[in-house]
Amino acid sequence: MKYAIGIDLGGTGVKGGLVDENGKIIKSLSTKTSKVNKEVIRAIADLINDLKTDLPIEGVGVGSPGTIDYKEGKVLTIGGNVEGWIGMNIKKELEAIHPNLKFKIDNDANCAGLCEMWLGAGKGYDSALAITLGTGLGGFIFYKDHIIRGARYRASELGHTILYPNGRLCACGQRGCTERYVGGTGLEETYFEFSGQRKSGFEIMESFKSDPYAKMTVEKFVDDLATATVSFKNFFDPEVFIVGGGVINSSHIWWDDYLRAYQEKINSFDQMPIVKAKFLNNAGIIGAASLILNEYE
Ligand SMILES: [Zn+2]
Q1: Crossing angle, helix 283-293 and helix 108-119, to 10 degrees?
Q2: Looking at the DSSP assignment, which residues form a beta bridge with residue 152?
Q3: How much is the pLDDT for 79?
């Protein structure tokens, strides 16, 4: 049996797991982190120490927000909220602390997508497109056992396709990016535009029935997500389209309306299955470990 450690760096902490070659998590741990780059590296390195057992480990896969130079293991553009994370060579920093371990670093949405291809909603499909709806919108494109990373590692940045020309300013510098509307932060902003008040994404979903502004917000979210899905489908026409991330926890409220809106908008009658991701909380850990265990290139 082969084993690897998968690390999932999120907005408020680091999660990690020791994963076997069947994708089973043997041991998992998480830790809160500061938002300073070197301290985050230290927290990841410590978590690796704590996850190690007597079992032999093939290596460590790390999923990080942002655009990642997969070969170098380096962060190219901002994603997440760690200070000084742009330019950070995660691979080199971790190799310096753990010289006997092999490291592979990838974008967090790619890791979540890999987990779905390996064991989840994408299993058995040759091509797939996946989106992760968290605070933003992460994208993943997969074709014949390969992640499509692009010439500059910026492919599958589906959250930064433009949904509204000259719309809301995005942290990436563009205006009207899809993730400024479809994603937790976008949802909160839409609610604020309608009501003049602040609610968290979770509160908006929870008050869907009692608060008319929440209802309007969710309806707009559904319509925007369907529109974006039409563009994604027309661009790549994957065998399957997978929707994951924290916003899926409230999908009982909006999923059927989303599928209906998509059907109304799309020009083609050939059916692309749109499915929910199977792994939500652990997708990042398992997918990061699969960078090592499955040798995807
Ligand atoms: Zn953007």
Answers
A1: 80
A2: none
A3: 66
State residue 41's pLDDT score: 96
CA of 162 to the centre of ligand 1 (A): 8
Ligand 1: centre distance to CA 293 (Å)? 32
Q: What is the DSSP letter of 136?
A: S
Query: Tokens 């009658």 — which residue?
Result: 269
**Residues 242 and 275: beta-carbon distance below 8 Å:** yes
The environment of the single-atom ion ligand 1, i.e. residues with CB closer than 5 A, is 160, 170, 172, 174, 177
DSSP H helical ranges for the chain: 37-51, 90-97, 108-119, 184-195, 201-206, 212-236, 251-265, 283-293
Q: How many angstroms is it from 270 CA to the middle of ligand 1?
A: 30
Residue 81 has a pLDDT of 78
Q: What is the DSSP letter of 63?
A: E
pLDDT tens column, 15-50: 999 999 999 999 999 999 888 999 999 999 999 999
273 CA to centre of ligand 1 in angstroms: 27
User: Look-up: residue for tokens 């120490």?
Assistant: 49
Helical segments of 124-183, H only: none
b (16+ CB within 10 A) / e for 181-211: bbbbbbbbbbbeebbeeebebeebbebbeeb
CA distance 105 to 123: 22
- Taking the centre of ligand 1 as the mean of its atom positions, its distance from the CA of residue 174, in whole angstroms, is 5
Tens digit of pLDDT for each residue in 172-227? 899 999 999 999 999 999 999 999 999 999 999 999 999 999 999 999 999 999 99
Lowest-confidence region among 9-18, 162-171, 215-224: 9-18
User: Which tokens go with 290?
Assistant: 């699969």
Gap between the Cα atoms of 143 and 236, Å rounded: 10
Instruction: Quote the ligand 1 centre to 177 CA distance (angstroms).
Output: 5
